[in-house]
Write a structure and sequence with these properties.
This protein is mostly beta strands. It has one helix and six strands, in the order H-E-E-E-E-E-E. It has a six-stranded antiparallel β-sheet with strand order 1-2-3-6-5-4, with helices on one face.
């Protein structure tokens, strides 16, 4: 299977209209080195909202941090009380010791998210 460039993966993500979409799930499975991310989006010019799942496979690193610093107004008492919305997802190609990887950085207010993995797949749920 031909490996897509980071720009091609980023373009496929953009076609799902993820900007300002609410992050529904973000799960890391250590035993399989898999990260799944779900959100509602629209595909191209369609008007029907769909659930998209992004599979980050063979992950070498995953960093997720949420915080309260800088929040004003109604402050959540638990991380479960927070809602996260995408502002941007950038993906770059990296090579480490001959291994070609994707480095994904997500701009999500109140959360820092960085993933380095071998493959990224976008599926409609």
């Amino acid at each position: 299977m031909l490996r897509l460039s980071a720009e091609e993966v980023e373009a496929r993500l953009m076609r799902t209209s993820y900007i300002d979409a609410e992050l529904m799930e973000l799960n890391y499975y250590n035993s399989t080195h898999l990260i799944t991310m779900k959100y509602f989006g629209f595909e191209d010019d369609e008007s029907e909202e769909k659930i998209f799942t992004v599979l980050f496979k063979d992950c070498f690193s995953a960093n997720f941090n949420s915080w309260l610093e800088g929040m004003e107004g109604d402050i959540p008492k638990s991380p479960n009380d927070l809602s996260f919305y995408f502002h941007n997802i950038s993906i770059e190609d990296v090579e480490v010791n001959g291994v070609f990887l994707y480095r994904c950085t997500m701009v999500i207010p109140m959360m820092e998210c960085k993933i380095t993995c071998k493959s990224i797949e976008i599926v409609e749920s």
